[in-house]
Design brief:
Blueprint (H helix, E strand, L loop, with lengths): L32 E5 L3 E3 L4 E9 L5 E9 L4 E6 L3 E4 L2 E9 L3 E11 L3 E9 L3 E12 L3 E7 L3 E3 L4 E9 L9 E6 L3 E2 L7 E5 L10 E10 L3 E11 L3 E12 L8 E6 L3 E3 L3 E10 L5 E9 L4 E6 L12 E9 L4 E10 L3 E11 L5 E11 L54 E8 L4 E2 L4 E10 L4 E9 L4 E8 L8 E4 L2 E4 L2 E4 L4 E10 L3 E11 L2 E13 L1
Parallel strand pairs: 2-10, 12-19, 21-28, 30-39
Antiparallel strand pairs: 1-3, 3-8, 4-7, 4-9, 5-8, 6-7, 9-10, 11-13, 13-17, 14-16, 14-18, 15-17, 18-19, 20-22, 22-26, 23-25, 23-27, 24-26, 27-28, 29-31, 31-37, 32-35, 32-36, 32-38, 33-37, 34-35, 38-39
Length: 546
C-alpha cells in the first residue's frame, strides 16, 4: 500500500474505503463438566448411593483428570469404584485422560448420621475445573414397635389377640402413623377373613416419648407355629417392623365321661325279694353311644325280673344285660333288677360293667350279706306280687323285659354254687381304638384296660406296646392316678410306668392319644407281664388317611 498524500486532523478530505471483507475462525479446546446425584432422603447410618457423571463435551481430550469429594464429620464411604481411593474423609478418582465427547459415571456408597451436602469437584490440565453439589437429608429412626400374643399356646379356631406398642423414641412429633399386620397363610382376621389388616393413629401426631397401644386379633386355622408380621410407618421415612409367633395345637376332643353307680340293701335274708339298682351317667360334654351294660351276680341270687330293655336273661351265667343306644351329656339312666335271695353268703357281690362303642367303660360293685331267714311263706290268696318301684324312662330296645318263672319251693335250699366264670390267673390287657379311620396329624385315641383276672393280689405289672413308624405319642393318662400316665420310650416301644399292686379282679384304665405324620395302616400290639409271670396280649388296627 502506497500513501499518496497523508491526511491531517484539520483537512476536509472524506474517508476513502480501500477494501472490505470477512473471514471465520474455529476455536479448538477441551472442556470438563461434572454432575452429582444422590437420594434426597436417607436413613441414619444406612448406606446410600452417590453417583458423579464426569464428561468432556469439547473436541479435544482432557488430560490428568482428577475427581474428588470431601466428607463432613459423621459421613464416610463404605465402598467405591475399584480404581478409586477411599480416604478417611473422602474419595479420590485418578481418571487420567477423558477423550472428546465422552462421559464417565463414578459410584460410591456412603453412610451419614446427619443431613449432609456433598460437593464433587473435577480438575484437569489447562486449569479446567467443574463442580456440583448434592444434598441428602438424613433422619434418625424414632419409631419402635413391639408385638406379643397374650399367651404362647392356642388351639386351632381360638382367637389370638396380639398386644402392640408403637412408640416415638425421637425428639420430634411423628405424623401419619400407621400399622399393618400380615398373617401367615393359616392366620386370618375373624371379621374380614383376610391375612392383612391395617390400623391408623387417628388422634393426632405421636409425640416424643409417647406410646400408641393397640390390639389386633387373628384366628389360626391349622396347627403348628403360626406367625404375624407387623409394620409401623410414619412421615419422614420412619419405619419399624416386628414379628410375633404362637404355637397352635388341634383342639383336644372332650373325653367321654361314663360313670356307674350301684345301690341296694346291705343285708338281706334268704327268701327276701329285693332290688339292685344301677345308674348309667354321662357327666361329659359329648353323647355316649351304643352302651352295653352287664350286671353279674352270685349264684345265691335268683333273678325275678329286670327293667325294660334287658336282653334275654341268662340264669346259668348269673348275668343280665342291657343295650342303651345313647346317653346324652348330663343324662342319668336307671336300670333295675329284682332278685330273690336263695342261699346265705356273707360276702355276696353284685358287679356292673358298662362299655360303649368307642371303648369308654365304667365299673361298679356292691357287696352285701345274705343271712339265714325264715322259710318262705306262700303269698296270701289274691295278693299281687310286689312290683318294682317306678323308674325314669330308660332307652327302649325291642324285645321287652326279660323274666324268669318263679321257682317253686322244693324243700331244703341247695348248697351254694361256685360263682363267676373261670379265671385266667394272669393280668389281661384290652385295647380299643376310638378313632378309625383318622386323618394325618389328627388325634388318634385309644382306651387301654389292664385287669388282674385272678383271685389273688398281683403286682409289678408292666405294660408295653409298639410304636409304629411315623407315629408319635401325644399323651397317656391313667384314669385312676394323674401320675400313672408316665411312660418311657425304649427300642421303638412304649413302656408304661409299673403298677405296683393290683387287687383281685381290679381294672386300671388308660387314655392314650397318638398322631401319625403319614398315611398308613398300622397295628398296635399290647402285652403285659407281672410278678406272677407273663400276662395277656391284645391288638388293634388303625387306618390313617391323607
Amino acid at each position: 500500500m502506497q500513501v499518496i498524500r497523508p491526511g491531517g486532523d484539520s483537512d476536509n478530505m472524506p474517508t476513502m474505503t480501500l477494501g472490505r471483507g470477512q473471514t471465520f475462525v474455529t476455536w479448538s479446546s477441551p472442556q470438563l463438566a461434572v454432575q452429582a446425584g444422590a437420594p434426597s432422603l436417607a436413613s441414619f447410618d444406612v448406606p446410600y448411593e452417590v453417583v458423579a457423571n464426569v464428561s468432556n463435551p469439547g473436541d479435544q481430550p482432557v488430560n490428568n483428570v482428577r475427581v474428588s469429594v470431601e466428607f463432613p464429620p459423621g459421613t464416610r464411604a463404605v465402598s467405591a469404584d475399584s480404581f478409586a481411593q477411599v480416604l478417611p474423609n473422602g474419595v479420590l478418582w485418578e481418571i487420567g485422560t477423558i477423550p472428546a465427547m465422552t462421559e464417565l459415571d463414578l459410584f460410591m456408597n456412603v453412610t451419614s448420621q446427619s443431613p449432609v451436602q456433598l460437593t464433587i469437584q473435577a480438575r484437569g490440565d489447562g486449569g479446567l475445573f467443574s463442580e456440583d453439589t448434592v444434598r441428602v437429608d438424613v433422619f434418625r429412626p424414632s419409631l419402635s414397635l413391639t408385638a406379643q400374643a397374650e399367651k404362647d399356646r392356642y388351639e386351632a379356631g381360638e382367637e389370638v389377640t396380639f398386644n402392640i406398642d408403637v412408640k416415638n423414641t425421637g425428639d420430634r412429633p411423628l405424623t401419619n402413623v400407621n400399622l399393618k399386620a400380615f398373617g401367615d397363610p393359616n392366620m386370618l382376621h375373624p371379621e374380614r377373613n383376610t391375612r392383612e389388616l391395617g390400623n391408623a393413629l387417628t388422634d393426632g401426631p405421636l409425640q416424643p416419648g409417647e406410646t400408641w397401644p393397640t390390639t389386633i386379633t387373628f384366628i389360626p386355622t391349622a396347627s403348628g407355629r403360626r406367625c404375624v408380621n407387623f409394620e409401623a410407618t410414619a412421615d419422614g421415612g420412619q419405619r419399624a417392623v416386628s414379628e410375633a409367633c404362637v404355637t397352635v395345637i388341634n383342639p383336644i376332643p372332650d373325653a367321654p365321661a361314663l360313670t356307674l353307680s350301684i345301690e341296694s340293701r346291705d343285708r338281706v335274708a334268704t327268701g327276701d325279694e329285693f332290688v339292685i339298682r344301677t345308674y348309667v351317667n354321662n357327666s361329659g360334654q359329648t353323647p355316649i353311644r351304643d352302651i352295653q351294660v352287664m350286671l353279674q351276680y352270685d349264684p345265691q341270687l335268683q333273678l325275678l325280673q329286670a327293667t325294660e330293655g334287658a336282653s334275654q336273661p341268662r340264669p346259668a351265667e348269673n348275668l343280665v344285660q342291657w343295650e342303651i343306644p345313647v346317653v346324652n351329656p348330663g343324662q342319668r339312666v336307671p336300670l333295675e333288677g329284682q332278685f330273690r335271695a336263695m342261699a346265705t353268703n356273707p360276702q355276696s357281690l353284685a358287679r356292673v360293667q358298662a362299655v360303649a362303642r368307642d371303648g369308654t367303660s365304667a365299673n361298679g360293685e356292691h357287696v352285701f350279706s345274705i343271712v339265714a331267714g325264715a322259710p318262705p311263706a306262700s303269698p296270701p290268696t289274691g295278693t299281687a306280687p310286689p312290683l318294682l318301684p317306678p323308674a325314669t324312662t330308660p332307652p327302649r330296645i325291642p324285645g321287652g323285659p326279660g323274666e324268669l318263672p318263679a321257682t317253686p319251693d322244693t324243700g331244703p335250699v341247695a348248697p351254694a354254687l361256685p360263682s363267676g366264670p373261670a379265671k385266667s390267673d394272669r393280668v389281661q390287657v384290652e385295647i380299643f381304638g376310638r378313632d378309625n379311620p383318622v386323618r394325618v396329624g389328627q388325634p388318634i385315641r385309644y382306651t387301654l384296660r389292664v385287669t388282674n383276672d385272678s383271685d389273688q393280689v398281683d403286682g409289678e405289672v408292666s405294660v408295653r406296646f409298639n410304636l409304629p413308624p411315623g407315629v408319635a405319642v401325644e399323651r397317656i393318662t391313667q384314669r385312676r392316678s394323674p401320675t400313672g400316665g408316665e411312660f418311657d420310650v425304649k427300642a421303638g416301644a412304649i413302656y408304661l410306668a409299673d403298677i405296683r399292686s393290683m387287687r383281685p379282679n381290679e381294672t386300671v384304665e388308660y387314655d392314650i392319644v397318638m398322631s401319625s405324620n403319614q398315611p398308613q395302616t398300622f397295628e398296635l400290639n399290647v402285652e403285659s407281664v407281672s410278678r406272677r409271670g407273663p400276662g395277656g396280649v391284645d391288638s388293634v388296627q388303625t387306618e390313617v388317611i391323607p
